[in-house]
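Two proteins follow. First one:
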Amino acid sequence: MVVSRYLASSILVVFLFNTVSLRAADVWDAATDFSPTVNPNGAWAYGWSNNPGIEFNLYQLRAPLAGCLPNVADQWFEPITADPAPHVTRNATCIGINCGGADGIDLQPGELAFHPGVHNEHSVIRWTSPISGTFSLAAKFQGRDRNGCSTDVHVFHNSFELFVATVTGTGIPRQFAISGLEVIAGDTIDFTVGFGGNGYLNDTTAIDARIVRVAWNAATDFSPTVNPNGAWTYGWSNNPGIEFNLYQLRAPFGWLFAKRGRPMV
């Protein structure tokens, strides 16, 4: 009977794949995650580069974008000249705003945009992977200057260029998507914008970028210190599929239910 009780309890170990945690912890959205006060900001960093895919310089200055109505926009920038460009800008409000009047730019609610510098310094939005895994990536770029923009946009995985396109006009999207992208912790994804070869004026370019982790491995993702752990939770059950109890104790060899060590992960 002792053996039977041991076997009965040992098969009740449960790995719970938590889809609620997945949505919170394994999806990164450049606009939604934007911070007007912290840089780097979690997995995201805002900066500029003379050599996209190779060099990255962090923006050090922030201020509201001047001349916007009815509300201001948040901005990180590098004042290489008197003009505060290159920069990254976000309309954090739930309504559209105009910056600069009839010859200015229009930013949609919650929209993120960036602009190159006077000497073709690329504005860069960088994502650094906090974990290893398989990811999907989608990005959409479109001009936001009323006079029409002409920019070159790029997506890099580390120094490898995944995508390049020319953005022209106003509100004409150029889109890119990839799935099955293998990434290891510390890898970078850079979204960049240059001035397209004809000067930097009227080059505000909106960006909608989203990165999603699409594959998980229970063994590789296992955490000996955190429970729940992202999308994973470790526990036990007397009624699998109905009841779930979280492991509260941990030891050098795993998570466990009680000091007697049964059941455990």
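Second one, unrelated to the first:
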Amino acid sequence: MNKATQTTMCASNEPRLKVSYELSNGRTVRLTNTMAVFEDEVTDKYAAVNFQKFVKIMSASDEIDDAVCKIHEFEEVEFKKHVGGNWFVNVGSGVRCVDVRKWFFDERGDLRPGRIGMGLRLSDWQLLKEHYPQMLETRADLAVTVPCFDQVGHKAGKRS
């Protein structure tokens, strides 16, 4: 089992659980008290999303898998799923990865991919899905996390 657990104490003396799951080639996904952090120790890059966004990504796994399957079959695919805030998960024919990225509006008002994010190799995506049941066991609160836009009273942000 490629899992390492580390517990520390935070300022309020409540245990702060950090659990890491290995993906491939120095890549991990680490769960903190409130975030899922995708890390690449080779490039020293990371992307942190809150649990609401992480659960939304994982709940879209069937749709993401359909897009990945098309990549394996050398079909054209442009899949993009909003997971909250300005965060999207993308799968496209041009790059063989599952891209989790924060997007921004440029000066013309067009939505563009930003620098904050991580492209998961297709093998990393498969490992992440395999680790997810363990994550749910370790962090029971993930199983009951509801994305903010699915909550009663959510007000969609408006761009001016």
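SUMMARY FIELD: The first strand starts at residue 3 and ends at 9. Residues 8 and 16 are 5 Å apart (CA to CA).
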